[in-house]
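[Meeting: bench + compute handoff]

Bench side (C.D.) handed over the final construct sequence. Compute side (W.E.) agreed to return the predicted structure before the next meeting so the bench team could plan truncations. Sequence as handed over:
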Amino acid sequence: MSSLSARLLISVSVLLLFFFGATIVVLDTAFVSAGEQAREDILDGHLMQLLAAAEPNDEGALSLPIDLFEARFNSIGSGLYAELRGDANSVLWQSQSALGLALPVGETPALGQHVFAREELSDATPLLTLSLAVQWEFPGGELKPYVFKVTESLDSFNAQIAGFRRQLFGWFAAVALIMLLAISILMRGLLRPLRQVESEISEIEEGKRVSLSEDFPTELSGVARNMNLLIDSERARSDRYRYTLDNLAHSLKTPLAAVRALLGESTDTGFSERVNEQVDRMDEIVRYQLRKPAASADNLVLTPVPVEKEIDRLVTGLRKVYRDKQPQIETQIAPGMKFRGDTGDFLELAGNLVDNACKWCNKRVRISIEPSSSSRAIASGMNMLVEDDGPGIPAAAAEALLQRGTRLDESRPGHGIGLAIVKDIARSYGGKLAIRSSELGGAGIVVSIPPVSSAS
């Protein structure tokens, strides 16, 4: 997950889920406990009223009136029941509401003790019961044991708990959604400076502005200041490169002009054309080297380069350079292939590799170029493979050849910096260079340039 907003929102959601979950558990436990305590208090009140209504009868036993003070005791199936038990838990009296029901006997309490218990009817209806064991003293001084028991169905209580829980979850879910929406809006405002930094950096890359603005919050002002210092430092270094190359170009102008003048005096037309071609190539290289730092300093946008067209021009020129050797140069280029970068960089990459391949091949050179892409790419990358059928490059010498000035054969013309230049250019685009064996029998040089993503 690459979005900072998404990470923050998910983190806050997890915290809200945890704290709201804990709050729901606490509130639910408190509500159930308070409800049960209230039920027990009500049952205790009913039990006291039963004791008050009990009277000895003429037969020397306790009796209770048919109609009790609480109307629910007098309604069949009301959910509130009462009974009086004597010795051996024999039922002496039951309220009219318990008609047709077999109330559970349950635990017999000790004398003078209240016992709350959870029991069930035969149809699994949950009950809350309160029992009290007493010894009743009759007028003759006789003591007889009795158990008064009040029972209430918990169906309505459980329904209340279920309704409370539904409301609790509903309200907390609504509050959580509102809080997440508010937090997302708040984060959008808080993260606006980061999006501004991203936007301004893109404008710098496209050459629309020269530096980041300074109206950032304190936390980002240091980042913006250091970024501007880095940009200024890079521009100053590019200027130094440009001035150095300007001096080089100025130094080369006069000798190149003198060579052209001398060639104009030559009578050998074919020789003059060949040398003029190389002078033009030298002049193009000087212009490219002069343009390169200026382009990187003033505009960081990557422009598409038609690969097939530039390769055809390059191959045509190299066939003239190596007309005595007449190498067979094959090209395998993906249709419509584009290189995102500077045209001079691409020609420097391909030119050095193909030139080396033509120099070392026996007869065949093959150039293969295809795009590389990814799901987040806004522009595809490039995989270039240049192969030849020459003697190849030993694995032990591959790494050394990438260093400037290293050559395997001092008898061949060159300066030993071609592969190092290719490596540096590939690295400037985030790519890499690798040396391997070719299917043609010689060396194979691979340049991999990654695709351009939105974060690049």
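W.E. noted at the follow-up: The CA atoms of residues 57 and 63 lie 6 Å apart. C.D. will use this when planning the next construct.
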